[in-house]
Specification:
There is one protein chain. The chain has helices spanning 2-18, 24-126, 196-210, and strands at residues 134-135, 141-142, 145-146, 168-176, 182-189, 214-215, 217-219, 225-236. By secondary structure, the protein is an alpha+beta fold.
């Protein structure tokens, strides 16, 4: 019992010593540590807020970049479509230009040919025609004269000109040589209508014209004989 009491007496001063208040230095140390922890937390918070702002800015920049990329893509598609359309239009214009150039060259060639022919015709027209030349009837030409016109009658089928057959004038163009012979004949005016009788009459007049004999066409002084195309008329009644 005495031993326990003595131990209790020893423990009481130790407990009193343990419950002793902290010193000012200790308190200052604690305040300093807490202040440092607070400042560190503030820095962490500021860093977190800054990171959040940067994240938000990055998100806005990303969305803006996406929007600009989409707008650029649409513009590129429009440009491609316009280029394709313009390419087709350019091909058409080039084709039309090539065709117009070919047409112009063809017209130029034709104009040159016609000019050459015209010059040749002018030279021929201005030249004095010689014996046997083919000339056109005019004031300086005496026309050919048929010698046997009354004897060169159209040969028609028997009874073909009975009642109802067409009547009238038939004109045949004949090519008369410088010797008075008929070289060719062609119908230029037949009887009216498309009947078989009218066709037969035209053919008969052409054949009759081939049997004609002419005094040839000559110059006014009668010294030069020419070849001419001249009309011959037949009247059927």
């Amino acid at each position: 019992m005495r031993i326990a009491l003595s131990m209790l007496l020893v423990a009481l001063p130790l407990a009193a010593a343990a419950q002793k208040k902290p010193t000012a230095a200790q308190l200052q140390a604690q305040v300093k540590r807490l202040t440092e922890e607070r400042d560190e937390l503030k820095l962490r918070l500021a860093s977190t807020e800054e990171l959040q702002q940067e994240t938000a800015s990055a998100k806005k920049a990303r969305d803006l970049a996406r929007s600009e990329s989409e707008a650029a893509r649409k513009e590129i598609d429009q440009l491609r479509a316009a280029l394709k359309e313009n390419q087709g239009g350019s091909d058409t214009i080039l084709k039309e230009l090539h065709e117009a150039k070919q047409a112009a060259e063809g017209a130029k060639t034709e104009a040159t040919r016609l000019r050459t022919e015209n010059e040749a015709l002018q030279q021929k027209a201005s030249a004095v025609p010689g014996e046997g030349d083919l000339v056109q009837l005019g004031e300086d030409i005496v026309p050919a004269r048929a010698i046997n016109l009354n004897r060169a009658t159209p040969r028609l089928k028997s009874g073909s000109f009975l009642g109802g057959r067409p009547k009238g004038a038939v004109v045949v163009h004949v090519l008369i040589s410088e010797k008075g012979d008929v070289l060719a004949a062609r119908l230029i005016q037949g009887l009216a209508g498309d009947s078989a009788e009218a066709k037969e009459a035209g053919e008969a007049c052409v054949e009759a014209a081939k049997r004609l004999v002419f005094d040839p066409a000559t110059s006014k002084d009668g010294k030069t004989k020419f070849k001419v195309w001249q009309g011959v008329g037949f009247y059927l009644d």
